Amino acid sequence: MMIVHDSNRGPYPARVRIALAELDLQDNVRFVEVNLRTGAHKRPEFLEKNYSGTLPVLELADGTFLAECTAITEYLDHLGGQPRLTGISARERGMIHMMNKRAEIEFMDPISVYFHHATPGLGPDVELYQNPEWASGCAIRRCVARAISTRSFRRGLISPARRSRWRT
C-alpha cells in the first residue's frame, strides 16, 4: 500500500487528494498527517523522505519517495495504463504540463509567498523569516493569473473535451 505524507490544510496535498479521487485510487493509499504548525516537515526524519521539506510526499511500497504534486499525479495517472489527467498525446501532455507550470508560477507561488510573508503563516516557530515587502509584489501576479485562467477556460485548455468522472 502506498502512503501519502499529507496535510489536509495545504493546497498542494489537496491536488494529490483530488487526483486520487478522480482516479478512484483513495483505497490504495494510507494518509499520514504531517503537522506543519509544529514544523514536523522540517525535522530530520521527514527531510530523509523529502530534503526540501515540502508536502505532499508519496511513499511507494518499495520505499521510494516521490515529492511534488505534479510528479505524484503523473505517477498515479499512469498506474492504470490509460492516463486521464496528464494527457495521452504529446500535444495534450505538453499543454497540460505548460498550464500546470503557469498555474504554479502565476497563481500558487504568489499565494504561497503572500501566506508565508504577509500573514502569520505557520506561526513563529516555523516562519523564521518573513518579508512583507516581498509579498506586496504578489498583487500584480494575481492579476496575471486571472487573465491566464480566463483565456485558458475560453480556449478549452483547462476544461478539455474528455470528461472527468465528476463532470458529465
Automatic annotation (TrEMBL):
The keyword Ligase does not apply. Residues 1-84 form the GST N-terminal domain. InterPro entries: Glutathione_S-Trfase_N (IPR004045), Gtt2-like_N (IPR034345), Thioredoxin-like_sf (IPR036249). CDD domains: GST_N_GTT2_like. The lineage of its organism: Bacteria, Pseudomonadati, Pseudomonadota, Alphaproteobacteria, Rhodobacterales. One of its GO terms (molecular function) is glutathione transferase activity. Pfam families: GST_N_2. This is glutathione transferase. Keywords: Transferase. It is an enzyme of class 2 (transferase). Its EC number is 2.5.1.18. It comes from Pseudosulfitobacter pseudonitzschiae. One of its GO terms (cellular component) is cytoplasm.
